Automatic annotation (TrEMBL):
<dbReference type="GO" id="GO:0004300">
    <property type="term" value="F:enoyl-CoA hydratase activity"/>
</dbReference>
<dbReference type="GO" id="GO:0006635">
    <property type="term" value="P:fatty acid beta-oxidation"/>
</dbReference>
<keyword id="KW-0456">Lyase</keyword>
<protein>
    <submittedName>
        <fullName>ECHD2 protein</fullName>
    </submittedName>
</protein>
<dbReference type="InterPro" id="IPR029045">
    <property type="entry name" value="ClpP/crotonase-like_dom_sf"/>
</dbReference>
<dbReference type="GO" id="GO:0005739">
    <property type="term" value="C:mitochondrion"/>
</dbReference>
<dbReference type="InterPro" id="IPR018376">
    <property type="entry name" value="Enoyl-CoA_hyd/isom_CS"/>
</dbReference>
<comment type="similarity">
    <text>Belongs to the enoyl-CoA hydratase/isomerase family.</text>
</comment>
<dbReference type="Pfam" id="PF00378">
    <property type="entry name" value="ECH_1"/>
</dbReference>
<dbReference type="InterPro" id="IPR014748">
    <property type="entry name" value="Enoyl-CoA_hydra_C"/>
</dbReference>
<dbReference type="InterPro" id="IPR001753">
    <property type="entry name" value="Enoyl-CoA_hydra/iso"/>
</dbReference>
Length: 222
């Protein structure tokens, strides 16, 4: 996906009705020794980092339970859409654990430190509507009879992104992701570097031409 230039947006969904991702298999984990657990979680964290580093926008379609590592997977995505009835939570403390695949870092960046601490300390599960109110998900939608309301809303969101200039979207994602980690002056410099890379693109010229000619732009990602 990272190197396929035809890919504009990636949507993560589950094929299991009622479950986005229920997290690690604790029965499997119970059979591991301490070293194996450490290796497993390190690999899991690396996977989430790779998902977060995808250059195109990513959307998690949460139509059911997203617990523990399942919510960490959703947090590694850029955008999240949930069914109102979906259940989410970093429940690790209820099992003698703490989030180990990015949850302690991505949740505070998403909802703020106070709320993140409350959710992680208590291991509380919240529904899609509560998640939307605290900014954990971008949209909460009523579940439908097929059980894929979040996926359908995620597809609609993806279709809003598709017509936009692909390289500009990628640079926008990069500028946001890098800039949020530094002071604002450094962030401005990062934005400037991303903008400079976009200036010579054919899509920028197409955007200007389409505006002058009063027609929809035809972006090619170059």
């Amino acid at each position: 996906l990272r190197f396929d230039e035809k890919v504009r947006v990636v949507v993560f969904k589950s094929e299991v009705k009622g479950v986005f991702c229920a997290g690690a298999d604790l029965k499997e984990r119970a059979k591991m020794d301490d070293a194996e657990v450490g290796h497993f979680v390190k690999r899991l964290r690396s996977l989430m980092d790779e998902i977060a580093a995808l250059p195109v926008p990513t959307i998690a379609a949460i139509d059911g339970y997203a617990l523990g590592g399942g919510l960490e997977l959703a947090l590694a995505c850029d955008l999240r859409v949930a069914a109102s009835s979906a259940k989410m939570g970093l429940i690790e403390t209820t099992r003698g654990l703490l989030p180990g695949a990015g949850g302690t870092q991505r949740l505070p960046r998403c909802v703020g430190i106070g709320l993140a601490k409350e959710l992680i300390f208590t291991g509380r599960q919240i529904d899609g509507q509560q998640a939307a109110l605290m900014g954990l998900v971008n949209h909460a939608v009523p579940q439908n009879s097929d059980g894929d309301a979040a996926y359908q809303r995620a597809l609609a969101l993806a279709k809003e992104i598709l017509p936009q200039a692909p390289f500009a979207v990628k640079m926008g994602k990069l500028a946001i992701n890098r800039g949020i980690e530094v002071d604002i002056a450094s962030g401005m410099a990062i934005e400037g570097m991303c903008y400079a890379q976009n200036i010579p693109t054919r899509d920028r010229q197409e955007g200007m031409a389409a505006f002058r000619e009063k027609r929809p732009p035809q972006f090619i990602g170059k």
